[in-house]
Amino acid sequence: MYKYLHIYNSPNLSGSVEISGAKNAALPLIASTILSKNEVKLLNVPEVADVKTLLKLFKYLGADYNFENNKLKINASTIKNTTAVYEIVKTMRASILVLGPLLARFNEAKVSLPGGCAIGARPVDLHLKALELMGADISIESGYIHARGRLKGATIIFDKVTVTGSENIIMAAALAKGKSRLINVAKEPEVIELCEILKKAGIDIEGIGSDELTITGSEGELLNFPEIHIIPDRIEAGTYLTAGAITNSNIKIKNIIPEHIESVIVKLSQMGFPIEIRENEVEIFPAKKIYPVNIITSEYPGFPTDMQAQLMAVATQAEGVSTIEERLFENRFMHVPELNRLGANIQIQGKIATIKGPSKLIGADVMATDLRASSALVLAGLIAEGETKVHRIYHLFRGYEKLLDKFSKIGAKMELLNEPNP
Ligand SMILES: CC(=O)N[C@H]1[C@@H](OP(=O)(O)OP(=O)(O)OC[C@H]2O[C@@H](n3ccc(=O)[nH]c3=O)[C@H](O)[C@@H]2O)O[C@H](CO)[C@@H](O)[C@@H]1O
Ligand SMILES: C=C(OP(=O)(O)O)C(=O)O
């Protein structure tokens, strides 16, 4: 039975939210266990749909695991199958993360092409080009990427900064023969955590945290992984921070690494929200006046595309004209018509959205189209007069753990109800 999220006007939030482990760190780290000879224990793993999908894929490949209370024990040494099937890959693009490690370990891998999705074309050409430079023979057959060959170290210059592309090639280089130089690598905290774990597992990696890495591969020898503690989810943290902002409330966001959301804090501060930064938490206070803002999305440490929709929801309440330019994905404004249905005044011209505020929002039926678009609609629903029904809400559960519990703890009123016409 399909569900929708019924949100009741909740203009005053208070209290604190504990942030879960990062989905986008957990996914590559789980994929990396393909390189491990031992069972790996991962802590602070978020129980979200994407993690469960990747685990389903691991089971299909032949791995064993146990996942309870955010603790995951996974043994990928039993993997025999090297084909990631369409039926699983189609539900989650990040399944492409098994390509690099499977190929590096088995000298062969077949992964269904992830295809386009809601936010843009999202090709994987840079992943494939890099693997070819490392000696892989790659063909596309019946919708599958078929990669074969023994990987050897290479110099790779990424034409664009790609997060999962960098992660795939870092994992491949860890087991390849010889040294790889990766230039223009992504510097997202999730990429850094992957490098640090591989280093602890015995791989020589230089340049961690910079955009150039030198990795000396183990020549096919499997690694001895340490216990892994997943870093806090900076996008979940940013989302709850924007919940404080849109409702102009005082809330604390706990269990985070504030540096990871610096660009979001800077923009909310510019909008007039006082924010106190402490060691593992930030606290947002009501603004006297909400100022408009100009945002351009970019790679870390720039403003994250994964926070663009949420900031746009907040900008609907600013006194004046804000602009948001989306530079990473060509189709990541799907929340705009839905926010406008609630009463926002947003226009799009190419990559730029212009938001005229403040707008009085009034509850309506709206459609979630992707993960972060869904969160923008939830935020808008908090301040919309009356009741807002967010349909296709399953997108949200790909990346937000215990969303209803966390929102209800800070005073938001919402419930999951059955769609009347499924
Ligand atoms: C699971 C995960 O971590 N997902 C994140 C990851 O996605 P993902 O890793 O898929 O995003 P990328 O960093 O690869 O994409 C950045 C840009 O490069 C382009 N590109 C990418 C690869 C390629 O082979 N060719 C190519 O042209 C993409 O279309 C996009 O325009 O980073 C994005 C950008 O921060 C985030 O929005 C996603 O939440
Ligand atoms: C776009 C996202 O995820 P994915 O790359 O898995 O689609 C996201 O986390 O906002």
UniProtKB/TrEMBL annotation:
One of the record's GO molecular function terms: UDP-N-acetylglucosamine 1-carboxyvinyltransferase activity
Top-level taxon of the source organism: Bacteria
Pfam short name (any one): EPSP_synthase
GO biological process terms, semicolon-separated: cell division; cell wall organization; peptidoglycan biosynthetic process; regulation of cell shape; UDP-N-acetylgalactosamine biosynthetic process
E.C. designation(s): 2.5.1.7
Location within or outside the cell: Cytoplasm
2-(S-cysteinyl)pyruvic acid O-phosphothioketal carried by residues: C117
Transmembrane feature ranges: none
GO cellular component, one term: cytoplasm
Binding annotation for UDP-N-acetyl-alpha-D-glucosamine: R93, R122, P123, V124, D125, L126, D306, L328
Keywords: Cell cycle, Cell division, Cell shape, Cell wall biogenesis/degradation, Cytoplasm, Peptidoglycan synthesis, Pyruvate, Transferase
UniProt-annotated binding residues for phosphoenolpyruvate: K23, N24
Enolpyruvate transferase domain segment(s): 11-406
Catalytic activity field: phosphoenolpyruvate + UDP-N-acetyl-alpha-D-glucosamine = UDP-N-acetyl-3-O-(1-carboxyvinyl)-alpha-D-glucosamine + phosphate
Similarity annotation: Belongs to the EPSP synthase family. MurA subfamily.
PANTHER family: UDP-N-ACETYLGLUCOSAMINE 1-CARBOXYVINYLTRANSFERASE
Protein task: Cell wall formation. Adds enolpyruvyl to UDP-N-acetylglucosamine.
Protein name per the record: UDP-N-acetylglucosamine 1-carboxyvinyltransferase
Organism: Lebetimonas natsushimae
Lineage, uppermost ranks: Bacteria, Pseudomonadati, Campylobacterota, Epsilonproteobacteria, Nautiliales
